[in-house]
Design a protein that fits this description.
By secondary structure, the protein is α+β, with helices and mostly antiparallel strands. Among the domains are: 62 residues, no CATH class; 82 residues, Sporulation related repeat (Alpha-Beta Plaits), CATH 3.30.70.1070. 35% of the residues lie in helices and 14% in strands. The chain has five helices and six strands. The strands form two sheets. Strands 4-5-3-6 form a four-stranded antiparallel β-sheet. It has a two-stranded antiparallel ribbon with strand order 1-2. α1 packs antiparallel against α2. The longest helix is centred in the middle third of the chain and has 26 residues. The chain is globular. The two termini are 38 Å apart. About 10% of the residues have low confidence.
C-alpha cells in the first residue's frame, strides 16, 4: 500500500512539475511551456485540487477536459430526469384496455429462409476481439528504426519507471495498440531525462496524426504525435 501511495505521489509531482505536451520541466506560476509553447494547466485552484484527488484515487489522469465532460453528462442526466417527470405528469400511469370489435386473425411467424452454399450453411462470423484484462504495455521500439508514434504521458526519470509502466498497462488494457515505455535519453528526437509512454509504430506523421483521436478517446487527452529517431 505504501509503494502505491508513493507511486501516485510521484505521478502527481510529475503532472504538477512537467509539461503534459513535451515533458519539459515547468514552474508553478508558468503559463506556457518554454520548450513547445503549450498552454500549461494551472497547478493552483479547484481544478488542480480535483486533478490531484483523481490521481490519488485512480493512479492516472486523462486530462482537464474530463471535468467539462462530467459536467455535460450531469446536465444531460438532469435533463433526462426532468423530461421523464414531465411525461409522467402529462400521462399518468394506468391500464389501457383495447377491445376487439371482431375476430382478430392470428399471423403465424415464418422463419427466414436459410442461406446455403455448395459447401453447406454459411458459418457464423466470429465475435469481435476485445482487449484482455491482462494486457500489458510491453512494446519495445524496434532497434535502429526511425518512425512516428503517439506520446501519451512523459514521466521524469527521477520519479522512477513504475509510474510509467502502470500507465502503459492501463493504456494497453484500454485497447490502444503497441503500447510501451521509452527511455528518452536514448533517442535524439526526444528531450533526455524522461520515461515516455507511447502507443503505435508508424512510418509517417500522417499515420500517427490519424491515430491521435483514438488515444484521446481512450482517456489520454494530452496525447500527441512525435517522431522517434535514434
Amino acid at each position: 500500500m505504501t509503494d502505491l501511495l508513493d507511486e501516485r505521489a510521484r505521478a502527481i509531482h510529475a503532472i504538477d512539475r512537467t509539461c503534459p505536451h513535451c515533458g519539459a520541466e515547468r514552474a508553478a506560476d508558468q503559463a506556457y511551456c518554454v520548450e513547445c509553447g503549450y498552454a500549461l494547466p494551472p497547478v493552483r485552484g479547484r481544478v488542480a485540487s480535483l486533478r490531484r484527488r483523481w490521481v490519488r484515487r485512480v493512479g492516472w489522469y486523462p486530462g482537464d477536459w474530463v471535468w467539462a465532460a462530467l459536467a455535460a453528462l450531469a446536465l444531460a442526466a438532469l435533463g433526462a430526469a426532468a423530461a421523464v417527470t414531465v411525461s409522467r405528469a402529462r400521462h399518468p400511469a394506468g391500464p389501457h384496455v383495447i377491445t376487439a370489435l371482431g375476430s382478430v386473425p392470428v399471423v403465424q411467424a415464418v422463419a427466414p429462409p436459410q442461406v446455403t452454399t455448395a459447401a453447406g450453411t454459411l458459418p457464423t462470423p466470429p465475435e469481435p476481439a476485445t482487449p484482455s484484462k491482462h494486457a500489458r504495455g510491453n512494446q519495445v521500439w524496434p532497434a535502429g528504426q526511425t518512425g512516428w508514434t503517439i506520446v501519451l504521458v512523459s514521466y521524469p526519470k527521477t520519479a522512477g519507471r513504475p509510474a510509467a509502466q502502470t500507465t502503459a498497462d492501463k493504456a494497453a488494457h484500454a485497447g490502444l495498440p503497441e503500447v510501451g515505455v521509452l527511455d528518452s535519453s536514448r533517442y535524439s528526437s526526444l528531450q533526455p531525462g524522461y520515461f515516455v509512454v507511447f502507443t503505435g509504430i508508424y512510418d509517417t506523421q500522417a499515420q500517427a496524426n490519424a491515430a491521435v483521436a483514438g488515444a484521446h478517446s481512450a482517456g489520454f487527452g494530452a496525447a500527441y504525435s512525435r517522431q522517434i529517431a535514434g
